Structures are given as structure tokens and as C-alpha cells.
Amino acid sequence: MWNIIFITAVFFTAVLFIWAIINLLSQLLTQVNSAVADNPTFDTVKAYIGQYKYLNSMWFVILLIGIFVGGMYLFKNPIPALAACVMLGIIPSHLMYSKDRQRRDKVLEQFAVALRIFTGEYSATKQINHGLRKVGEKVPNPVGEIFRETCSLLILGVTPDKAYKQMAQKLNISYAHIFASLLSQAERQGAGILPILDDLTKKVQVEQKLNKDNKIEIYGDRYIGLCLSFMPLPVFLILQRAYPETASFLTHTIIGRTIVTLSFAAVIIWFLLDRVLTE
Questions:
Q1: What is the DSSP secondary-structure string of 154-188?
Q2: What long-range pairs does 94-101 form, CB within 8 A, spacing at least 24?
Q3: What confidence score (pLDDT) does residue 181 get?
Q4: pLDDT in tens, 53-109
């Protein structure tokens, strides 16, 4: 009787906890979008919170609840069940983060080329639209497409400051906001921005080189850590085949549940460390 009451209480606590997190993230996202939507300083914060939009999906919440119920049924303990929910809950976020990181790396690489092309064209013609159009023609997507869209906005009569700001937001790197600010100054100061453009191009090239060196340096460590984190799964399958009582040991004994919880925690820690290493 007490076991049923305990399991029911833990279940409803977990449901309330998940909904509390969803509501908190939703409110946080709303506050960020309304209060600092026009401030580039908070772009990283908004992008980070945006990774958790999938938590607003009812189906995903139901899936997490199902995982928790299944974990409670298997382990008869809320700790490994919650650990499984957290681990499976952050996997979509990490996949979205990795995809976004790859895009930012590609944008940074193309942006260095775009700056060189724009600086050369602008120094020759002193026309911002011409420089933007040439970048759009010579640089592949996504950077080329964004420059072409900016050029089209200017032709359609959108104010330069607004067009450049939208361009920086779409590029979503810090140097793009500096570039947008320089373009706005060029509308008033003309060729006086050329030395600053040259300095900005050099800084982007240095950042690009550091980014490549960092990726090469940590590439092996990241995947070794990934393999070690998920190693318990193949080990379990091998042991289960050799000793059929392995599953019962892991789900019905304190030591087994501790091993499972630590395995889930190792995966969660790897996700967190991987973000730290790649930033």
C-alpha cells in the first residue's frame, strides 16, 4: 500500500516538475523576445533558450512521462527514472546545438571571404549595394543568400540600418553586428570605414584559424568521451547474453540501480562537457 502511494506521489511530482520547467523556459523565452529582442548582446541567450522549444510539445512531454513511468516500473526507484528522463530530454537539445554550431562555423568561414570581397569592391566603387551584391554572387549559401536578401531589402526601400541589423541577426555571429554597425557608419562617413574593415577582416581570419585549431585539438577527446559514456550499453548487451540474470541484477538491486544511474549521469555530463569544449 505504501509503495503504491509513494510511486503515485513521485509520479505526480515528476509531472509537475516537468511542467514547471516547460513553463519557466516558455516565460523566459517570452521575456527575452519582448525585452531584449533588439539587443544583439542577448542573441546567444535567445538561441540557447530556443533550443528547448521542443519541450512545449505535448507529445514530447507525454514521451518523457512515459519514460519516467517505464523507469519506475523497471527500477522501482525515482532516481534512475528521473536520470533517464533528463538524459533523453537533453538529447534533442544537443543535436540542435551541434547543428547550429556547424552552421556558425560555416558562416564564420564564409564571412571571412565575404569581408575580403566587400572591402575590395567598396574601396573601388564606394557603393555599399554594389559590394553586397558582389558578395551575394561570389559567396555560397548561407552567407551569400543573406547578403543577397540584404541587397534586395535596400532596393525595396527598407532603411539601411534596419536591413543591416536583420543581416547581422541572420548571420548570428558577433562580428556580423560589428560589420552592420560599420555599414551604418559608411552611410554617413563613406570611405573612412575602410581601415576598420581591414582590421575586422584580420580579426575574423584569426578567429577562424583559432576555431579550426580548437576543433582539431579536441576532436579526439570529444569522441573518446562519447564512446566511453555510451560504453555501458554494449557491455550490458554482452553480459546479458552471457549471464541472463544481468538485467534482473541491474533493475532489482541497489548496486545495479546505482550503476544504471551513474551510467545515465555519465551521458548527461558528457553532453554538458561537450558544449563547454566546443565553445
A1: HHTT--HHHHHHHHHHHHTSHHHHHHHHHHHHHHH
A2: 94/271, 94/274, 94/275, 96/51, 96/54, 97/51, 97/275, 100/47, 100/51, 101/278
A3: 93
A4: 555 566 777 787 888 888 888 888 888 888 888 888 788 877 888 888 889 889 999
81 touches 27 (CB < 8 A):
no
Note the pLDDT of residue 79. Answer: 86
**C-alpha–C-alpha distance, residues 241 and 68, integer Å:** 26
Cell 541472463 belongs to 244
Residue 163, pLDDT score: 94
Q: Do the Cβ atoms of 235 and 227 come closer than 8 Å?
A: no
Indicate the length of the chain as a whole number: 279
Q: How far apart are the first and last CA of the chain?
A: 50
Residue 267: alpha-carbon gap to chain centroid: 17
Fold of 107-206: Receptor-associated Protein (1.20.81)
User: What is the reported pLDDT for 182?
Assistant: 92
Q: What is the pLDDT of residue 29?
A: 52
36 or 100, which is more confident? 100
Structural domain boundaries in the chain:
107-206
Buried b (16+ CB within 10 A) or exposed e, 253-276: eeebbeebbebbbbbbebbeebee
Q: What is the mean pLDDT of residues 193-199?
A: 89
Cell numbers 534482473 correspond to 248
141 backbone φψ class: left, alpha, beta (φ>0; ψ -120 to 50): beta
